[in-house]
Amino acid sequence: MLKPKLKSALLSVVTAAVVFVSGAGADDIKLPDMGSPADAILSTNDEAQIGRAIMRDIRKSGLVVEDPLVNEYINQVGNKVAAQTNEGDHHFTFFVIEDHRINAFALPGGYIGIHTGLLEATRNEDELAGVLAHEIAHVTQRHIARAVHASSRQSILSTAMMLGAILAGVAGGGSDVIQAGIAVAQGTAAQQRINFTRSNEHEADRVGIAALADAGFDPYGMASFFDIMSRQNTRAPDERAPEFLRTHPVTSSRIAEARDRARSYPQIRSDDSISYGIAKIRLIVDRFETPKEAVAYFEKRPYQRQNDLERYGRLLAYLRDGSYFKALDIINYLTEENPDVIAYHIALGDTQMLLRRYDEADETYENALKLFPRNVPVVIAYAERLLELDQPEKAHKILLDLLNNVPPTPDQIRLIARAANEAGESAESLYYLSEYRLMIGDLIGGIGHLQQALRLPELQEIQRIRFEARIDFIREFMSEEQLRRMQSSHPSGKTARNAL
Fold first, then answer.
1. Which helix (H) or strand (E) holds 443?
2. What is the mean pLDDT of residues 100-127?
3. What is the mean predicted confidence (pLDDT) over 384-398?
4. How much is the average pLDDT of 71-76?
5. Residues 453-479: what's their mean pLDDT?
6. Residues 82 and 211 in one domain
7. Which range, of 29-33, 194-198, 393-397, averages the lowest pLDDT?
């Protein structure tokens, strides 16, 4: 049964393509006319624009996991595999969706989504890398562009809705959601296009297995995960099959073919990274409704018989439960035994903060920054703690250094905007908020924040020049309708201040 929030989010994905193509409410990006014969095959730039637009709605759903440790890990593995099959034509962004169902999907423009349920279902890192390799291949082989080309005789509306229906399905929508999209898009033609994308599964397997082996992962990882999924398909008739099987049909012949391909590569024995285990443990702790349930789960086995990852999960559960001294005993041991594990340093600092040992926490974070310079999880965690300690100037400084060197997420932009605001840097805070609005596709809101900044009495001349140049740049990407709407909505450039 879909949660109302999830169902609403997926339905918005189904309708997204129509909204964007028709121009209704398209505050974000001007998308190509997919019905034009000249654009029958989407360019990589077109795909990137469509992907950003759909990703905007996915982020709005609130289902994207914002845990920096999980995000950093999934992007490390994904980019390691993508480097073996990507010739520079695609930029990849990997993200995790909070959904216990087992699924993964690829969006136009290199956006690869993994459900929390899938990450937890993998038995090792090779299997996870195998799934990512398969989805990466869907992007590099231009399967969505091929689907649009195959449907070029359909109307703009039908083609757009076909894309929406496919994407809603691979994002985890139930069959009712997919069928609703298909019906609106003239069912038969849309279903043919979904079948067309399924016919590319074998090609994605072939390309993905090659990338998997070249990246140093066990090439059998993909077939191994397929085998897990096929076994789950033998459940009782009244039980739902995993969503992965609905969107990635797995047959015995397909598993056999994947194994045969893997045999053509040298045997690789890879060990799971500590980051793989930490990502899984963090998701497991978060899935429990109450702290007591999380604690009970990790206390099932005696502490002495647990490995370090299980102990890490236990300390996270204790932190949720308010058992800070129990957590401190565990994290002191883990950091001493494993000084090179970033997650343990963050957990130590967090525990010290919760125990109000502020000087010790500050020393822990400073030491972590020296050991792991510009590491995203460390900087984000430290900045959040600095804001709690009423040190926004320092938080702003370390965030600015990080985000000038590492592409930020929308949540990270909001964090630096908050730090700048609390540090009294009102103009810079509004500038960051403008960038945040742009990242979620709101060009009008982005300009509105810059216009607010331009009216500040303390604005410096160099800031004025920078903000005006940014406004001119954004206007180049706005339609006449957007420009008129911006003028009518904000004749004096006023926008809401309550954005942090």
1. helix 443-454
2. 91
3. 97
4. 96
5. 93
6. yes
7. 29-33
Q: Assess contact for 383 and 419: CB atoms under 8 A.
A: yes
pLDDT single digits (tens) 121-150: 999 999 999 999 999 998 888 777 766 665
Burial per residue of 334-365, b for 16 or more beta-carbon CB atoms within 10 angstroms, e otherwise: bbeeeeebbbbbbbbbbbbbeeebeeebbebb
Provide DSSP, 36-78. Answer: SGGGSSPPHHHHHHHHHHHHHHHHHTT-B---HHHHHHHHHHH
Residue 482 located in a structural domain: no
* Active site residues per annotation: 135, 205
Residues 109 and 174 in one domain: yes
Q: Are residues 182 and 38 in the same domain?
A: yes
Say if 469 falls within a structural domain: no
Range of the domain at 218: 4-263
- Please indicate, yes or no, if residue 138 is contained in any of the structural domains: yes
The pairing of beta strand 93-97 with beta strand 111-115: parallel
Question: Where in 124-178 does DSSP place strands (E)?
Answer: none
Distance of alpha carbon 324 from alpha carbon 337, whole angstroms: 20
Question: Are 187 and 247 in a shared domain?
Answer: yes
CA distances from residue 429 to 285, 347, 456 in whole angstroms, order as listed = 34, 29, 12
CATH code, 330:
1.25.40.10
Q: Tokens representing 349?
A: 């600092």
Structure tokens at 440: 């979620």
d(CA 244, CA 232): 10
- Backbone conformation region of residue 390, classed left if phi is above 0, alpha if psi is from -120 to 50, else beta: left
3-class DSSP assignment, residue 456: coil
Structure tokens at 405: 């060197």
Place of tokens 């082996």: 213
Count the neighbouring beta carbons within 10 Å of the beta carbon of residue 457: 5
Total structural domains in the chain?
A: 2
What confidence score (pLDDT) does residue 2 get?
Answer: 37
Q: Which of 213, 228, 263 is the last residue of a domain?
A: 263
Residues 255 and 307 in one domain: no
